[in-house]
Design a protein that fits this description.
Largest sheet: 7 strands, mixed
CATH class of the largest domain: Alpha Beta
Strand order of the largest sheet: 12-11-7-10-9-8-13
Shape: globular
CATH architecture of the largest domain: 2-Layer Sandwich
Helix content: 25-40%
Number of strands: 13
Strand content: 15-25%
Number of domains: 2
CATH superfamily of the largest domain: Dihydrodipicolinate Reductase, domain 2
Mean pLDDT: 96
CATH topology of the largest domain: Dihydrodipicolinate Reductase, domain 2
């Protein structure tokens, strides 16, 4: 099949490389406002270069991957749907929930499949954890812990436009908690601090946060995030039930050092960045998209899924700023 790629920044170029290596993908068509980025992709992957998103959609593509800036997501999703082209879009659907809901309403009733990029759903550990929960291996859950710690903060320009740590980082934890447990979040309480880069504080954001989520069955989920983890990129989940407890990410490349006498675990080189930690998951995610394009499976992460994680991020952001518990119903306006 022929796949279009809109946006060839860090993640777009990474997706181009991944797609180039998939058996189902025969050719690529790329577009980026920066001509040099498109030229580089053309040289590396034998891609055809188009001068606009419209030209990509008109180039006989079977599906399109949107990896452009967040502000462009709504318009590009709608353009792809109007053209009848199955679309994969990196999260978020839009910069604001109002825009995201508008996109959802605009595509309701369309038969064009849309997949939103939440790569943890395709990581082997999280897949196994979900299977264990669904099979009842842990018994009734009582506690979930989810962690995302970045090795270093993103640039100031990114932070200023990101919408905050809950919307651009923690949202991955929120999505995977929903997906693994099969439960919805009803209430949150969030806290945050700034012990590092001044520009994060100046942007009105926090560089380290914690959030307690109450799920609809009473399970408590604790989410921990930070822009500063000098040892590496740390993504983990613990699930504790009345029968058993399991962990995702408890492996030799875990960026954590034990000080217990005689303990040598973990012994591997720590994960350095999200592309290192989730290389296989990204490949599985885009393989799934080719199956969506082929019509052999439904979207494994819909706009509705992405918006649910977004509402949790909205609630946490409000909780952080107002120092109080916030229900999901409140931010929805329900």
């Amino acid at each position: 099949m022929r796949i279009g790629i809109l946006g060839l920044g860090r993640i777009g170029a990474f997706h181009a490389e991944t797609l180039f290596g998939l058996d189902a993908v025969e050719s690529l068509v790329v577009a980026d406002p920066f001509a040099e980025a498109a030229k580089t992709a053309a040289e590396r992957f034998g891609a055809d270069v188009a001068d606009s998103p419209e030209a990509v959609l008109a180039a006989g593509v079977d599906g399109v991957v949107i990896a452009a800036a967040t502000d462009a997501h709504p318009g590009l999703i709608l353009a792809a749907v109007e053209a009848g082209v199955p679309v994969f879009c990196e999260k978020p659907v839009a910069r604001t929930m109002t825009e995201g809901v508008a996109v959802l309403k605009a595509v309701q009733g369309s038969s064009v499949p849309i997949q939103i990029g939440y790569n943890r759903r395709f990581d082997a550990g999280f897949v196994a954890a979900r299977a264990a929960v669904r099979a009842g291996e842990l018994g009734k859950l009582h506690t979930v812990r989810s962690t995302t710690l970045d090795p270093a903060p993103p640039p100031a320009a990114y932070v200023a436009a990101s919408g905050g740590i809950f919307r651009d980082c923690s949202v991955h934890d929120f999505d995977i908690i929903r997906w693994v447990t099969g439960r919805e979040v009803t209430e949150v309480y969030a806290v945050g601090g700034n012990r590092g880069a001044d520009y994060i504080r100046e942007a009105g954001d926090a560089d380290t946060t914690g959030a307690v989520l109450t799920l609809d069955d009473g399970t408590i989920a604790v989410v921990s995030n930070s822009r500063h983890n000098a040892r590496g990129y740390d993504v983990r989940m613990e699930l504790h039930g009345f029968t058993d407890s399991i962990a995702v990410g408890l492996e030799d490349k875990l960026p954590l050092r034990s000080v217990e006498p005689g303990v040598t675990f973990p012994a591997g080189v720590p994960h350095d960045f999200f592309m290192d930690r989730f290389t296989a998951a990204y490949r599985a995610e885009l393989t799934a998209f080719t199956e969506v394009v082929a019509g052999s499976r439904p979207s494994p992460c819909t706009i509705e899924d992405a918006l649910e994680a977004g509402w949790i991020a909205e609630a946490c952001t409000l909780s952080l700023h107002e120092h109080r518990p916030v229900t999901i119903a409140e931010v929805r306006g329900a």
